[in-house]
Design a protein that fits this description.
The chain is of the alpha/beta class. Helix 3 packs antiparallel against helix 10. 43% of the residues are buried. Strand 5 and strand 6 form a beta hairpin. The chain has a single domain, classed as Protein-Tyrosine Phosphatase, Chain A. The chain is built from ten helices and eleven strands. The strands form two sheets. Strands 1, 2, 3, 4, 7, 8, 9, 10 and 11 form a nine-stranded mixed β-sheet that branches. A two-stranded antiparallel sheet has the order 5-6. InterPro entries: NonRcpt_TyrProt_Phosphatase (IPR052074), Prot-tyrosine_phosphatase-like (IPR029021), PTP_cat (IPR000242), Tyr_Pase_AS (IPR016130), Tyr_Pase_cat (IPR003595), Tyr_Pase_dom (IPR000387). It is found in: Nucleus.
């Protein structure tokens, strides 16, 4: 069999949808990392009242880092037309039109209901702060900032990305390439490794999704990276959510971008009517529309048993059709809100192909956790770990640059914080 071709801007969410590769080859398998934890189930109240992380007051004096924004001119797009102002929310008691809760509309009317998160809380979350911030920790972060800034200025990041790009990774794609499973793949050249794919049910059925475990300073961060559901895989997608007891779904795409379907609708359009599937019934319990993302509280009921599972669905709506978001701050708030919301199971992340924007999210989330815990971090190492578990994670140099841009923004704010 043939190998998937190199994942580029032609494959997936920033990559167009017409694939020229025909087959996917088998490679030597990696050690299995598909064990999963099964913590307690989550209730509606748990989702809406997840505690925010501890606030620690920090101070740094006489540090004025240079403005690095110009270093990224070529890696970002102009301000997205999809940005809106203010936040809009809704709950079950409202009788107004509810279609905005379904498709990712961008300029909604004023709505009323139960607020899930305030702008003040999001602003606090965006301040990523270490648990300890003594003079020694300040010096370490200052040195890290200067080192990363130097990498950007001297174009070392591009060299880093190219080194990762040419690294040969062993792994077999047999399950995704089986004739019976080919129609379950959104893109023919983005398939999960057999060793890390997410199995469904007792028969270990196929879905295009991979377990990703990233280890940093001895701590493990557990995710599922998935493609956006197809009409024929929506039941499978919800089965995966329930079997892994995931309480957060991260969606980093709009359903249609540039006239191309990137992900099929897998949640209810209205709070008045659930989404009826073969094996599941999905209810929209509440939602809130913010400037950069939409939060939905969903209840998933398994028809065969009547058991229910609550999920917080967080959709980033401000990623442009090409390139990366113009607003770093909006993406920081998004990542931090997801981390705050996580309670059980792996965090389930998807875009269109489940490798580009998904990889950016995973990388940035791990770095933020490292900063909070005073741990060192290495972006190249994080991306290398992801690629060992799912082919093509972080597809373009612009996405790789964006990871650095986000981290530099956080460190700069930290070092100028009073």
């Amino acid at each position: 069999m043939s190998a998937p071709r190199k994942a580029t801007a032609e494959s997936g969410e920033d990559e167009g949808d017409d694939y020229k590769s025909k087959d996917v080859i088998s490679r030597e398998t990696l050690p299995s990392s598909s064990q999963k934890k099964t913590p307690r189930s989550v209730t509606h109240k748990d989702l809406e009242n997840a505690d925010s992380s501890e606030k620690v007051k920090l101070s740094v004096q006489n540090f004025q880092p240079s403005n690095y924004e110009d270093l990224f001119k070529d890696a970002t797009e102009s301000e997205s037309i999809w940005a809106t102002s203010g936040s809009f929310l809704r709950d079950k008691s409202s009788s107004e039109d509810e279609e905005l809760a379904g498709p990712s509309q961008t300029v909604p009317p004023q709505l009323s209901g139960i607020q899930i998160v305030s702008e003040r809380e999001l602003a606090q979350l965006a301040q990523v702060r270490p648990l300890e911030f003594s003079f020694r920790e300040q010096s370490i972060i200052k040195d890290s900032f200067k080192m990363l800034e130097k990498k950007v200025a001297e174009y070392e990041i591009l060299q880093e990305f190219m080194t990762l790009d040419f690294k040969s990774l062993p792994g077999a794609f047999n399950s995704g390439n089986e004739l019976r499973n080919r129609d379950k793949n959104r893109y023919r050249d983005i398939l999960p490794y057999d060793s890390t794919r997410v199995p469904l049910g007792e028969n270990k059925d196929y879905i295009n999704a991979s377990y990703i475990r990233i280890v940093n300073s001895g701590e493990e961060y557990f995710y599922i990276a998935s493609q956006g559901p197809l009409p024929s895989t929506i039941d499978d997608f919800w089965q995966m959510v329930l079997e892994n007891n995931s309480n957060v779904i991260v969606m980093i795409t709009r359903e249609i971008e540039g006239g191309v379907i990137k992900c099929h609708h897998y949640w209810p359009i209205s709070m008045k009517k659930p989404l009826e599937l073969k094996n599941y019934r999905v209810f929209l319990e509440n939602y809130q529309i913010l400037q950069y993302f939409i939060i939905r509280i969903l209840q998933v009921v398994r028809k065969s048993t009547g058991t229910s599972h609550f999920v917080k669905h967080v959709q980033f709506t401000n990623w442009p059709d090409h390139g990366t978001p113009a607003s770093v701050d909006g993406f920081i708030k998004y990542v931090r809100f997801v981390r705050k919301s996580h309670l059980t199971g792996p965090i389930l992340v998807h875009c269109s192909a489940g490798v580009g924007r998904t990889g950016v999210f995973l990388c940035v989330d791990v770095v933020f956790c490292a900063i909070e815990k005073n741990f060192p971090f290495n972006i190249r190492n994080i991306v290398a770990q992801m690629r060992e578990q799912r082919y093509g994670m972080i597809q373009t140099k612009e996405q790789y640059f964006f990871c650095y841009k986000v981290v530099l923004e956080v460190l700069q704010k930290l070092l100028t914080f009073d």
